[in-house]
Amino acid sequence: MPYEIVIGLEIHVQLNTLSKAFCADDASYGGEPNTHISVVSLGHPGTLPLPNKKQIEYATRLGLAMGCTINQSNFFDRKNYFYADLPKGYQITQDKQPICIGGGVTIKTDEGEKMIRLTRIHMEEDAGKSIHDLSPSQSFLDFNRAGVPLLEIVTEPDLRSADEAYALLTEIRRLIQWVGVSDGNMEEGSMRCDCNISIRPLGQKEYGTRCEIKNVNSIRNAKRAIEYEANRQINLLESGGEVVQQTRSYDAVNNHTNIILRDKEDAHDYRYFPEPDIPPIVIGDEELEAIRANLPKLPKDLFARFTTDMGLSDYDADILTSDKATADLFLALSQKNKNYKAAANLIINPIRSYLNEKGWESNQLDISVEKLQSFIELIESNKVSAAIAYQRIFPELPLQKDKTPLQIAEGLGLIQNADEDFLVTIVEAVIAKYPDKVAIYRKGKKGLLGFFMGEVMKASKGKAEPKATNQLLREKLG
Ligand code: ADP
Ligand code: MG
Fold first, then answer.
1. Which of 23, 101, 225, 389 ranks highest by number of CB atoms within 10 Å?
2. What confidence tens digit (pLDDT) does each residue in 362-380 have?
3. Best mutation site among 105, 210, 264 for ligand 1, i.e. most ligand atoms within 8 A of its Cβ?
4. Which CATH class is domain 420-477?
5. DSSP assignment, residue 136?
6. Ligand 1 pocket residue status of 168, Cβ below 6 Å
Protein backbone atom coordinates (compact mmCIF):
# COMPACT_ATOMS: atom_id res chain seq x y z
CA MET A 1 0.00 0.00 0.00
CA PRO A 2 1.37 3.47 -0.78
CA TYR A 3 1.84 5.68 2.28
CA GLU A 4 2.20 9.38 2.80
CA ILE A 5 4.73 10.72 5.28
CA VAL A 6 3.63 13.58 7.54
CA ILE A 7 6.23 15.64 9.38
CA GLY A 8 6.13 18.57 11.78
CA LEU A 9 9.29 20.11 13.22
CA GLU A 10 10.13 21.86 16.47
CA ILE A 11 13.31 23.85 15.93
CA HIS A 12 15.36 25.37 18.72
CA VAL A 13 17.44 28.36 17.77
CA GLN A 14 20.10 29.70 20.10
CA LEU A 15 20.21 33.49 19.95
CA ASN A 16 23.49 35.35 19.61
CA THR A 17 22.83 37.81 22.42
CA LEU A 18 25.72 38.83 24.65
CA SER A 19 23.97 37.93 27.90
CA LYS A 20 21.61 35.19 28.98
CA ALA A 21 17.81 35.27 28.85
CA PHE A 22 17.21 36.26 32.47
CA CYS A 23 20.52 37.55 33.84
CA ALA A 24 23.74 39.24 32.72
CA ASP A 25 25.87 36.05 32.48
CA ASP A 26 27.90 35.58 29.31
CA ALA A 27 25.74 33.73 26.75
CA SER A 28 28.55 32.81 24.35
CA TYR A 29 29.22 29.21 23.35
CA GLY A 30 31.91 27.21 25.15
CA GLY A 31 34.16 28.61 27.86
CA GLU A 32 35.73 26.66 30.72
CA PRO A 33 32.93 24.69 32.42
CA ASN A 34 30.94 26.71 34.95
CA THR A 35 32.53 30.06 34.23
CA HIS A 36 29.48 31.72 32.59
CA ILE A 37 27.34 31.39 35.70
CA SER A 38 25.83 33.26 38.61
CA VAL A 39 23.24 32.58 41.30
CA VAL A 40 20.51 33.11 38.66
CA SER A 41 21.95 30.55 36.20
CA LEU A 42 22.37 28.16 39.09
CA GLY A 43 18.76 28.63 40.15
CA HIS A 44 19.47 29.64 43.72
CA PRO A 45 16.31 30.24 45.72
CA GLY A 46 15.32 33.86 46.08
CA THR A 47 16.95 35.04 42.84
CA LEU A 48 14.80 36.85 40.30
CA PRO A 49 14.83 36.61 36.50
CA LEU A 50 15.08 39.80 34.45
CA PRO A 51 14.04 39.38 30.79
CA ASN A 52 16.57 40.22 28.09
CA LYS A 53 15.30 42.97 25.75
CA LYS A 54 17.35 41.51 22.91
CA GLN A 55 15.58 38.18 23.13
CA ILE A 56 12.23 39.92 22.76
CA GLU A 57 13.52 42.06 19.89
CA TYR A 58 15.07 39.05 18.11
CA ALA A 59 11.91 36.97 18.50
CA THR A 60 9.90 39.83 17.02
CA ARG A 61 12.37 40.31 14.18
CA LEU A 62 12.33 36.64 13.23
CA GLY A 63 8.55 36.53 13.57
CA LEU A 64 8.20 39.45 11.16
CA ALA A 65 10.61 37.82 8.72
CA MET A 66 8.49 34.66 8.81
CA GLY A 67 5.18 36.45 8.41
CA CYS A 68 3.94 35.69 11.91
CA THR A 69 1.43 37.76 13.84
CA ILE A 70 3.29 39.39 16.69
CA ASN A 71 1.48 38.83 19.95
CA GLN A 72 2.07 42.27 21.43
CA SER A 73 1.04 41.15 24.87
CA ASN A 74 2.57 37.79 25.69
CA PHE A 75 3.93 36.14 28.80
CA PHE A 76 6.33 33.55 30.12
CA ASP A 77 5.31 30.29 31.77
CA ARG A 78 7.03 27.81 33.99
CA LYS A 79 7.45 24.30 32.64
CA ASN A 80 8.11 22.14 35.66
CA TYR A 81 10.29 19.06 35.63
CA PHE A 82 13.16 17.60 37.54
CA TYR A 83 16.54 17.19 35.93
CA ALA A 84 20.08 17.52 37.24
CA ASP A 85 21.00 20.17 34.69
CA LEU A 86 17.89 22.22 35.56
CA PRO A 87 18.56 23.36 39.12
CA LYS A 88 15.48 25.62 39.37
CA GLY A 89 13.23 22.60 38.80
CA TYR A 90 11.52 24.40 35.94
CA GLN A 91 12.30 25.95 32.59
CA ILE A 92 11.04 29.46 31.81
CA THR A 93 9.28 29.18 28.45
CA GLN A 94 6.07 30.34 26.80
CA ASP A 95 2.99 28.16 26.60
CA LYS A 96 -0.43 29.88 26.39
CA GLN A 97 0.66 33.17 24.84
CA PRO A 98 3.77 32.79 22.67
CA ILE A 99 5.32 35.93 21.18
CA CYS A 100 4.71 34.92 17.53
CA ILE A 101 1.67 33.14 16.11
CA GLY A 102 1.11 31.69 12.63
CA GLY A 103 3.20 32.71 9.66
CA GLY A 104 5.09 30.41 7.36
CA VAL A 105 8.30 29.64 5.51
CA THR A 106 8.38 28.96 1.79
CA ILE A 107 10.52 26.14 0.42
CA LYS A 108 11.31 25.03 -3.11
CA THR A 109 10.21 21.50 -3.98
CA ASP A 110 10.24 19.52 -7.22
CA GLU A 111 6.60 20.55 -7.70
CA GLY A 112 7.36 24.24 -7.16
CA GLU A 113 7.16 26.51 -4.15
CA LYS A 114 5.40 25.33 -1.02
CA MET A 115 4.57 27.27 2.13
CA ILE A 116 5.09 25.42 5.38
CA ARG A 117 2.84 27.00 8.01
CA LEU A 118 4.19 27.82 11.43
CA THR A 119 2.15 27.20 14.53
CA ARG A 120 4.15 29.57 16.70
CA ILE A 121 7.54 30.88 17.73
CA HIS A 122 8.11 31.18 21.44
CA MET A 123 10.91 32.38 23.72
CA GLU A 124 12.56 30.16 26.30
CA GLU A 125 15.86 29.37 28.01
CA ASP A 126 18.27 26.49 27.55
CA ALA A 127 19.22 24.02 30.29
CA GLY A 128 22.73 23.20 31.49
CA LYS A 129 24.69 20.25 30.14
CA SER A 130 25.12 16.85 31.78
CA ILE A 131 28.31 15.11 30.79
CA HIS A 132 28.26 11.34 31.22
CA ASP A 133 31.18 10.23 29.08
CA LEU A 134 34.18 11.62 30.99
CA SER A 135 34.19 8.99 33.69
CA PRO A 136 32.67 5.51 34.03
CA SER A 137 31.30 6.22 37.48
CA GLN A 138 30.62 9.95 37.64
CA SER A 139 28.54 12.52 35.82
CA PHE A 140 29.52 16.16 35.45
CA LEU A 141 27.43 19.28 35.12
CA ASP A 142 28.30 22.39 33.15
CA PHE A 143 25.90 25.30 33.66
CA ASN A 144 27.41 27.66 31.10
CA ARG A 145 24.49 26.95 28.78
CA ALA A 146 21.86 27.22 31.52
CA GLY A 147 19.68 30.23 30.77
CA VAL A 148 21.00 30.92 27.27
CA PRO A 149 18.14 32.47 25.23
CA LEU A 150 16.37 30.27 22.69
CA LEU A 151 13.54 30.60 20.25
CA GLU A 152 11.47 27.55 19.46
CA ILE A 153 9.86 27.49 16.03
CA VAL A 154 7.00 25.00 15.77
CA THR A 155 5.65 24.05 12.34
CA GLU A 156 2.29 22.64 11.39
CA PRO A 157 2.46 19.03 10.12
CA ASP A 158 2.78 20.30 6.52
CA LEU A 159 5.95 18.53 5.42
CA ARG A 160 5.54 15.44 3.28
CA SER A 161 9.07 14.09 2.81
CA ALA A 162 12.53 14.05 4.31
CA ASP A 163 13.66 16.24 1.41
CA GLU A 164 11.06 18.87 2.27
CA ALA A 165 12.22 18.83 5.89
CA TYR A 166 15.80 19.25 4.66
CA ALA A 167 14.75 22.21 2.50
CA LEU A 168 12.82 23.80 5.37
CA LEU A 169 15.70 23.51 7.83
CA THR A 170 18.10 24.94 5.25
CA GLU A 171 15.75 27.85 4.63
CA ILE A 172 15.24 28.47 8.36
CA ARG A 173 18.96 28.47 8.93
CA ARG A 174 19.38 30.99 6.10
CA LEU A 175 16.68 33.23 7.59
CA ILE A 176 17.94 33.22 11.18
CA GLN A 177 21.41 34.11 9.94
CA TRP A 178 20.01 36.65 7.48
CA VAL A 179 18.10 38.64 10.08
CA GLY A 180 21.06 38.31 12.44
CA VAL A 181 19.45 36.60 15.42
CA SER A 182 21.67 33.50 15.46
CA ASP A 183 24.80 32.14 13.83
CA GLY A 184 22.81 28.98 12.96
CA ASN A 185 25.93 26.93 13.66
CA MET A 186 24.64 23.39 14.14
CA GLU A 187 27.98 21.98 15.35
CA GLU A 188 27.78 24.33 18.32
CA GLY A 189 24.15 23.46 18.90
CA SER A 190 22.81 26.85 17.75
CA MET A 191 20.08 25.03 15.87
CA ARG A 192 18.58 21.74 17.02
CA CYS A 193 15.45 20.08 15.90
CA ASP A 194 12.82 17.60 17.09
CA CYS A 195 11.20 15.75 14.19
CA ASN A 196 7.60 14.54 14.56
CA ILE A 197 6.85 11.82 12.03
CA SER A 198 3.76 9.82 11.17
CA ILE A 199 2.56 7.94 8.13
CA ARG A 200 -0.89 7.36 6.68
CA PRO A 201 -2.26 5.41 3.73
CA LEU A 202 -2.21 7.73 0.71
CA GLY A 203 -5.58 9.47 0.47
CA GLN A 204 -6.52 9.09 4.14
CA LYS A 205 -7.55 12.36 5.82
CA GLU A 206 -6.71 11.62 9.45
CA TYR A 207 -3.12 11.79 10.57
CA GLY A 208 -1.46 8.63 11.79
CA THR A 209 0.12 8.21 15.23
CA ARG A 210 3.38 10.11 15.41
CA CYS A 211 6.76 9.50 16.95
CA GLU A 212 9.04 12.33 17.92
CA ILE A 213 12.78 12.12 17.28
CA LYS A 214 14.48 14.38 19.82
CA ASN A 215 17.42 16.74 19.45
CA VAL A 216 18.70 16.04 15.96
CA ASN A 217 21.78 18.16 15.56
CA SER A 218 22.31 18.58 11.82
CA ILE A 219 20.16 19.13 8.77
CA ARG A 220 21.56 16.04 7.12
CA ASN A 221 20.84 13.93 10.19
CA ALA A 222 17.28 15.24 10.29
CA LYS A 223 16.78 13.97 6.76
CA ARG A 224 18.33 10.59 7.55
CA ALA A 225 16.40 10.22 10.82
CA ILE A 226 13.10 11.00 9.07
CA GLU A 227 13.83 8.53 6.27
CA TYR A 228 14.69 5.82 8.75
CA GLU A 229 11.74 6.49 11.05
CA ALA A 230 9.19 6.65 8.21
CA ASN A 231 10.45 3.32 6.88
CA ARG A 232 10.33 1.81 10.32
CA GLN A 233 6.68 2.85 10.69
CA ILE A 234 5.76 1.61 7.21
CA ASN A 235 7.38 -1.77 7.86
CA LEU A 236 5.60 -1.95 11.19
CA LEU A 237 2.16 -1.34 9.63
CA GLU A 238 2.87 -3.63 6.70
CA SER A 239 3.74 -6.48 9.05
CA GLY A 240 0.46 -6.06 10.92
CA GLY A 241 1.85 -3.98 13.78
CA GLU A 242 0.79 -0.61 15.09
CA VAL A 243 2.72 2.63 15.67
CA VAL A 244 2.69 3.70 19.31
CA GLN A 245 3.30 7.33 20.21
CA GLN A 246 6.86 7.54 21.45
CA THR A 247 9.77 9.86 21.91
CA ARG A 248 12.86 8.43 20.28
CA SER A 249 16.44 9.42 19.70
CA TYR A 250 18.49 9.24 16.51
CA ASP A 251 21.77 7.32 16.49
CA ALA A 252 23.73 9.10 13.76
CA VAL A 253 26.63 6.63 13.82
CA ASN A 254 24.49 3.58 13.12
CA ASN A 255 21.68 5.48 11.36
CA HIS A 256 18.63 4.31 13.27
CA THR A 257 15.95 5.73 15.57
CA ASN A 258 15.60 2.66 17.77
CA ILE A 259 16.44 4.36 21.04
CA ILE A 260 13.15 4.80 22.87
CA LEU A 261 13.26 7.66 25.38
CA ARG A 262 9.68 7.41 26.58
CA ASP A 263 6.21 6.15 25.70
CA LYS A 264 3.17 8.38 25.70
CA GLU A 265 1.86 6.55 28.75
CA ASP A 266 4.58 8.10 30.87
CA ALA A 267 4.36 11.46 29.09
CA HIS A 268 5.32 14.36 31.28
CA ASP A 269 2.75 16.58 32.87
CA TYR A 270 4.71 19.80 33.07
CA ARG A 271 2.10 21.69 35.11
CA TYR A 272 2.63 24.89 33.21
CA PHE A 273 1.61 28.10 34.96
CA PRO A 274 2.38 31.77 34.27
CA GLU A 275 5.83 32.76 35.52
CA PRO A 276 5.00 34.86 38.58
CA ASP A 277 8.37 36.67 38.69
CA ILE A 278 8.12 38.24 35.22
CA PRO A 279 5.37 40.68 34.29
CA PRO A 280 3.67 40.20 30.90
CA ILE A 281 5.79 41.30 27.95
CA VAL A 282 4.20 44.24 26.17
CA ILE A 283 5.48 45.33 22.76
CA GLY A 284 4.19 48.81 21.90
CA ASP A 285 3.15 49.75 18.37
CA GLU A 286 6.10 52.12 17.99
CA GLU A 287 8.55 49.50 19.14
CA LEU A 288 7.06 46.98 16.72
CA GLU A 289 7.27 49.42 13.82
CA ALA A 290 10.88 50.26 14.68
CA ILE A 291 11.79 46.56 14.54
CA ARG A 292 9.93 46.19 11.25
CA ALA A 293 11.72 49.22 9.79
CA ASN A 294 15.07 47.71 10.78
CA LEU A 295 14.44 44.40 9.08
CA PRO A 296 16.83 43.81 6.16
CA LYS A 297 15.43 43.04 2.71
CA LEU A 298 14.66 39.32 2.80
CA PRO A 299 16.22 36.75 0.44
CA LYS A 300 12.98 36.12 -1.46
CA ASP A 301 12.59 39.86 -2.17
CA LEU A 302 16.18 40.12 -3.36
CA PHE A 303 15.78 36.97 -5.46
CA ALA A 304 12.82 38.58 -7.21
CA ARG A 305 14.75 41.79 -7.74
CA PHE A 306 17.86 40.03 -9.05
CA THR A 307 15.90 37.93 -11.54
CA THR A 308 13.32 40.50 -12.63
CA ASP A 309 14.93 43.94 -12.47
CA MET A 310 18.53 42.86 -12.97
CA GLY A 311 17.95 40.10 -15.50
CA LEU A 312 19.96 37.39 -13.74
CA SER A 313 19.14 33.70 -14.01
CA ASP A 314 17.44 31.82 -11.16
CA TYR A 315 20.67 29.90 -10.73
CA ASP A 316 22.74 33.06 -10.25
CA ALA A 317 20.13 34.69 -7.99
CA ASP A 318 19.98 31.56 -5.82
CA ILE A 319 23.71 31.68 -5.18
CA LEU A 320 23.75 35.44 -4.65
CA THR A 321 21.05 35.14 -1.98
CA SER A 322 22.52 32.11 -0.24
CA ASP A 323 23.62 34.34 2.63
CA LYS A 324 23.34 37.99 3.49
CA ALA A 325 27.02 38.83 3.14
CA THR A 326 27.02 37.54 -0.45
CA ALA A 327 23.88 39.48 -1.31
CA ASP A 328 25.30 42.63 0.28
CA LEU A 329 28.52 42.26 -1.68
CA PHE A 330 26.61 41.86 -4.92
CA LEU A 331 24.46 44.90 -4.13
CA ALA A 332 27.55 46.96 -3.33
CA LEU A 333 29.24 45.93 -6.59
CA SER A 334 26.15 46.59 -8.68
CA GLN A 335 25.66 50.04 -7.23
CA LYS A 336 28.45 51.63 -9.20
CA ASN A 337 28.34 49.40 -12.25
CA LYS A 338 25.26 48.33 -14.16
CA ASN A 339 26.99 45.28 -15.60
CA TYR A 340 25.16 43.00 -13.15
CA LYS A 341 26.19 39.81 -14.89
CA ALA A 342 29.87 40.72 -14.54
CA ALA A 343 29.47 41.25 -10.79
CA ALA A 344 27.47 38.02 -10.48
CA ASN A 345 30.11 36.04 -12.39
CA LEU A 346 32.88 37.45 -10.25
CA ILE A 347 31.13 36.37 -7.05
CA ILE A 348 29.93 33.01 -8.33
CA ASN A 349 33.25 31.94 -9.81
CA PRO A 350 36.56 33.24 -8.46
CA ILE A 351 35.27 34.67 -5.18
CA ARG A 352 33.40 31.52 -4.20
CA SER A 353 36.35 29.28 -5.09
CA TYR A 354 38.66 31.53 -3.10
CA LEU A 355 36.39 31.41 -0.04
CA ASN A 356 36.00 27.64 -0.35
CA GLU A 357 39.73 27.18 -0.56
CA LYS A 358 40.21 29.21 2.61
CA GLY A 359 37.23 27.61 4.33
CA TRP A 360 35.80 31.06 4.90
CA GLU A 361 32.27 32.41 5.04
CA SER A 362 31.35 35.24 2.67
CA ASN A 363 31.67 37.82 5.41
CA GLN A 364 35.34 36.90 5.81
CA LEU A 365 36.35 37.98 2.30
CA ASP A 366 39.48 40.10 2.59
CA ILE A 367 39.24 41.99 -0.71
CA SER A 368 37.56 45.40 -0.65
CA VAL A 369 34.54 46.31 -2.73
CA GLU A 370 36.59 49.07 -4.43
CA LYS A 371 39.26 46.56 -5.48
CA LEU A 372 36.64 44.22 -6.90
CA GLN A 373 35.00 47.13 -8.64
CA SER A 374 38.18 48.14 -10.45
CA PHE A 375 38.85 44.48 -11.21
CA ILE A 376 35.54 44.35 -13.12
CA GLU A 377 36.40 47.64 -14.85
CA LEU A 378 39.75 46.24 -15.92
CA ILE A 379 38.02 43.36 -17.71
CA GLU A 380 35.44 45.73 -19.22
CA SER A 381 38.19 47.98 -20.56
CA ASN A 382 39.37 45.02 -22.64
CA LYS A 383 42.90 45.41 -21.33
CA VAL A 384 42.81 41.84 -20.04
CA SER A 385 40.56 38.94 -20.97
CA ALA A 386 38.13 37.69 -18.32
CA ALA A 387 39.82 34.28 -18.33
CA ILE A 388 43.29 35.73 -17.71
CA ALA A 389 41.92 38.14 -15.12
CA TYR A 390 40.24 35.34 -13.17
CA GLN A 391 43.22 33.01 -13.36
CA ARG A 392 46.18 35.32 -12.93
CA ILE A 393 45.08 38.64 -11.47
CA PHE A 394 42.31 37.68 -9.05
CA PRO A 395 44.57 35.51 -6.83
CA GLU A 396 46.92 38.50 -6.49
CA LEU A 397 44.22 40.88 -5.21
CA PRO A 398 44.44 39.79 -1.56
CA LEU A 399 48.25 39.47 -1.80
CA GLN A 400 49.18 42.76 -3.45
CA LYS A 401 46.95 44.91 -1.29
CA ASP A 402 48.60 48.23 -2.12
CA LYS A 403 48.31 47.77 -5.91
CA THR A 404 45.31 48.33 -8.16
CA PRO A 405 44.22 45.47 -10.43
CA LEU A 406 45.61 47.44 -13.40
CA GLN A 407 49.00 47.78 -11.70
CA ILE A 408 48.98 44.06 -10.94
CA ALA A 409 48.16 43.28 -14.59
CA GLU A 410 50.99 45.53 -15.76
CA GLY A 411 53.37 44.04 -13.26
CA LEU A 412 52.62 40.55 -14.56
CA GLY A 413 52.80 41.73 -18.18
CA LEU A 414 49.23 40.71 -18.86
CA ILE A 415 47.88 43.82 -20.55
CA GLN A 416 46.32 42.91 -23.86
CA ASN A 417 47.82 44.46 -26.90
CA ALA A 418 45.72 45.78 -29.81
CA ASP A 419 48.70 47.46 -31.41
CA GLU A 420 48.67 46.79 -35.15
CA ASP A 421 52.41 46.12 -35.57
CA PHE A 422 52.47 43.75 -32.60
CA LEU A 423 49.50 41.78 -33.92
CA VAL A 424 50.53 41.67 -37.59
CA THR A 425 53.87 40.06 -36.73
CA ILE A 426 52.24 37.30 -34.76
CA VAL A 427 49.34 36.72 -37.18
CA GLU A 428 51.68 36.46 -40.15
CA ALA A 429 53.95 34.05 -38.31
CA VAL A 430 50.99 31.80 -37.47
CA ILE A 431 49.73 31.87 -41.07
CA ALA A 432 53.19 31.01 -42.35
CA LYS A 433 53.45 28.13 -39.90
CA TYR A 434 50.29 26.33 -41.11
CA PRO A 435 50.05 26.61 -44.93
CA ASP A 436 47.89 23.48 -45.29
CA LYS A 437 45.36 24.70 -42.73
CA VAL A 438 45.28 28.07 -44.49
CA ALA A 439 44.47 26.28 -47.76
CA ILE A 440 41.61 24.35 -46.14
CA TYR A 441 40.28 27.58 -44.63
CA ARG A 442 40.36 29.29 -48.00
CA LYS A 443 38.41 26.38 -49.53
CA GLY A 444 35.56 27.30 -47.17
CA LYS A 445 36.19 25.64 -43.81
CA LYS A 446 35.70 28.90 -41.88
CA GLY A 447 35.46 27.01 -38.57
CA LEU A 448 39.27 26.92 -38.58
CA LEU A 449 39.29 30.56 -37.50
CA GLY A 450 39.06 29.37 -33.90
CA PHE A 451 42.21 27.31 -34.39
CA PHE A 452 44.12 30.33 -35.69
CA MET A 453 42.82 32.51 -32.85
CA GLY A 454 44.08 29.93 -30.39
CA GLU A 455 47.50 29.85 -32.01
CA VAL A 456 47.81 33.64 -31.96
CA MET A 457 46.77 33.67 -28.29
CA LYS A 458 49.38 31.04 -27.50
CA ALA A 459 52.10 32.86 -29.40
CA SER A 460 51.21 36.17 -27.71
CA LYS A 461 50.96 34.55 -24.28
CA GLY A 462 47.34 35.64 -24.03
CA LYS A 463 48.16 39.26 -24.73
CA ALA A 464 46.67 39.62 -28.21
CA GLU A 465 43.50 41.68 -27.89
CA PRO A 466 40.81 39.28 -29.22
CA LYS A 467 38.65 41.67 -31.24
CA ALA A 468 41.51 43.22 -33.18
CA THR A 469 43.13 39.80 -33.63
CA ASN A 470 39.92 38.33 -35.00
CA GLN A 471 39.56 41.12 -37.54
CA LEU A 472 43.17 40.95 -38.62
CA LEU A 473 43.08 37.17 -39.03
CA ARG A 474 40.00 37.38 -41.27
CA GLU A 475 41.72 39.98 -43.42
CA LYS A 476 44.98 38.10 -43.77
CA LEU A 477 43.31 34.75 -44.41
CA GLY A 478 41.26 36.42 -47.12
P1 ADP B 1 3.60 18.38 21.71
O2 ADP B 1 3.53 19.73 22.31
O3 ADP B 1 3.00 17.31 22.53
O4 ADP B 1 4.97 18.01 21.24
P5 ADP B 1 2.13 19.43 19.40
O6 ADP B 1 0.72 19.09 19.07
O7 ADP B 1 2.41 20.80 19.84
O8 ADP B 1 2.65 18.35 20.42
O9 ADP B 1 2.97 19.11 18.10
C10 ADP B 1 4.33 19.20 18.05
C11 ADP B 1 4.78 19.00 16.64
O12 ADP B 1 4.29 17.77 16.12
C13 ADP B 1 4.31 20.06 15.66
O14 ADP B 1 5.41 20.41 14.85
C15 ADP B 1 3.24 19.36 14.85
O16 ADP B 1 3.20 19.87 13.53
C17 ADP B 1 3.71 17.94 14.84
N18 ADP B 1 2.64 16.96 14.69
C19 ADP B 1 1.46 16.91 15.35
N20 ADP B 1 0.75 15.84 14.94
C21 ADP B 1 1.50 15.17 14.03
C22 ADP B 1 1.31 13.97 13.27
N23 ADP B 1 0.24 13.22 13.37
N24 ADP B 1 2.30 13.61 12.42
C25 ADP B 1 3.41 14.34 12.31
N26 ADP B 1 3.65 15.47 13.00
C27 ADP B 1 2.70 15.89 13.86
MG1 MG C 1 7.05 18.28 21.30
1. 225
2. 999 999 999 999 999 999 9
3. 210
4. mainly alpha
5. S
6. no
